[in-house]
């Protein structure tokens, strides 16, 4: 008998549009001979299943079920592809934990912590050979904030929402007079803001997942952007960024990066597939941790998809591994 899998998408943030694109791709590549797939849309006050003919059926939040006529559908597990809140910040994971429904992504605690860039760096910064940029975490903005930042950190700076994703509300600040506007943009997205010194280096993003009793670090993708940094446009607009998979690294760099990435995955107690962004500093080759994404994009051209293909693995097999792992 086929397992019933809820493919959850949508969300409460601006990342919902990316979540919908990811869900469409995942739905196409899942093994429909092995699983019955139900795409569940989650929006504020509107959780529903949409049938193939477009009819909407509300989700019963008491047990995360859906009534299709006289048939009540309950789910054996959840494939979570909901970027941002509530799918990536632990809220949805906590809900499923209470209902004892397994899911493909990190648990509630890991999801909540890793959504906070400042807290995540504090946890991983003592891993050997891992470095983090000097930074300040802000919980409010007042008249002294700009002076405090300029006193403690060196320009250029990155200013970003501490709990955001897809680089929404993120700015690169080169001059002191740009700082106020950058802070306003970040605080418009989040009540916490992270300001950190710019690291000059080659930028990479790398996937890692656990399945069949082992942790697999995928080939890294090197990000070569025509933009100042890997912002929303660079991530999602065609032709703005060159993505090289596998990225150009020496054997020593590959070995060191893979060791660090596996330790980050373990130390943060991750599950499923995550994506970690990092720099290799130009002059020193040092590994600088940027951030972790616990519900990475799964579009046809997403970095994880590129990396899975680079190891010669069919995407369907990759998704099957993620689903089967949640039942172990």
UniProtKB/TrEMBL annotation:
Pathway: Cell wall biogenesis; peptidoglycan biosynthesis
Gene3D superfamilies (UniProt xref): 3.40.50.20, ATP-grasp fold, A domain, ATP-grasp fold, B domain
Domain ATP-grasp: start-end pairs: 117-324
Organism: Belliella kenyensis
Cofactor(s) annotated in UniProt: Mg(2+); Mn(2+)
The protein's Enzyme Commission number: 6.3.2.4
Keyword Cell wall biogenesis/degradation found: yes
Subcellular localization(s) per the UniProt record: Cytoplasm
Catalysis: reaction(s): 2 D-alanine + ATP = D-alanyl-D-alanine + ADP + phosphate + H(+)
NCBIfam families: D_ala_D_alaTIGR (TIGR01205), PRK01372.1 (NF002378), PRK01966.1-3 (NF002527)
Alphabetical keyword list: ATP-binding, Cell shape, Cell wall biogenesis/degradation, Cytoplasm, Ligase, Nucleotide-binding, Peptidoglycan synthesis
Ligase recorded as keyword: yes
Protein name: D-alanine--D-alanine ligase
InterPro entries found in the cross-reference section: ATP-grasp, ATP_grasp_subdomain_1, D-Ala_lig_Van_CS, D_ala_D_ala, Dala_Dala_lig_C, Dala_Dala_lig_N, PreATP-grasp_dom_sf
